[in-house]
User: What shape does this take?
Amino acid sequence: MKEIKNKYINRLERIPQIDDKEREALQKVADEYAFRVSDYYLSLIDWDDANDPIRRLVIPQNGELDGWGELDPSNEEAYTKALGLQHKYRGTALLLVNDVCGAYCRFCFRKRLFMDANDEVTRDISQGLEYIREHREINNVLLTGGDPLVMSTKKLESIIRHVREIDHVKIIRIGSKMLAFNPFRVLDDPSLLEMLSKYSEGKRKIYLMAHFNHPRELTPEAVEAVNRVMKAGVIVMNQTPLIQGVNDNPYVLSELFNDLSYMGVAPYYVFQCRPTSGNKMFSLPLEQAYEIFEKAKSMCSGLGKRARFAMSHATGKIEVVGKMDGHIFFKYHRAPNKNKKPTLLAYKSNPKARWFDDYDNKDRVMSLEKERIPFVSVDSY
Assistant: This one.
């Protein structure tokens, strides 16, 4: 691929494939929710296809102005314990280290961070580090934001080095879509790989939580970037929401699972699209999404079907574990409240539901508590 001079674009007028009339309409969306993309990622779009899934992922669309949803649907604010730090689950802390991404996913659940009023992200992580030092139950730290790999290697290394100095933190996770948005971040910077190799130790690994949403993102450049990261000793896993018009086809989703498994990347989570402001056009009814997920898994080997289908709900990570006889079954995969007793829940089917809150408690037909079902693991609590 030829060298790209202008790697990032944040103005619609710099995309010649969008004509003036369409640009005028879409600018209203970009004014509401930030727009940014890389030249590399734009090159993956089939501009002759109005429904191209890559285009849908990053180019503003009028449907985003639908009034549905809220800016913080998972109530992350409630779990903010220090500036730039969230602590929701006992062993895991999140450091919001950046408020920029290689491109902005139109379905982003943290789009509030890219608005002018954002005060959740900090360049000074000292308060967060002190909190982690004081809470020895924290054994893994997720660097997120924004995308940490947008930062310079020098700045990222400083953060990783400080976290590594905390003995009880065994795992460092980096949440990033840069392998999809701009794999040249890895391919053109050997110092990044050297740094990752330095801090991904034998029993204290770095995990890169990749974010491939569609198999077309797995270009030769992206695959090479993944391989180099893994050769540096980093464990690569993938997570994606199930997105209407992108991967809501079981054949597309199974292709993604299979291709990832061929590369040695574990499919980790498939998330129900959160009810974030502007996201209705990307969301599917939950039970329909679960059926797509299950059909996709049926076309994969065991290594390709490792993903779990879950919701990052305000009350915890809720996994959808089954659907039969007019009922839908949920399980608290993780919960912030260690005393929370209901672990397996059954509700009457609601084909219109898009989120856990859409199921009325009067339709709950079963709630098994952990004392009554000892075979259900509570380790994740």
About this structure: The longest strand covers residues 316-324. Residues 252 and 340 are 37 Å apart (CA to CA).
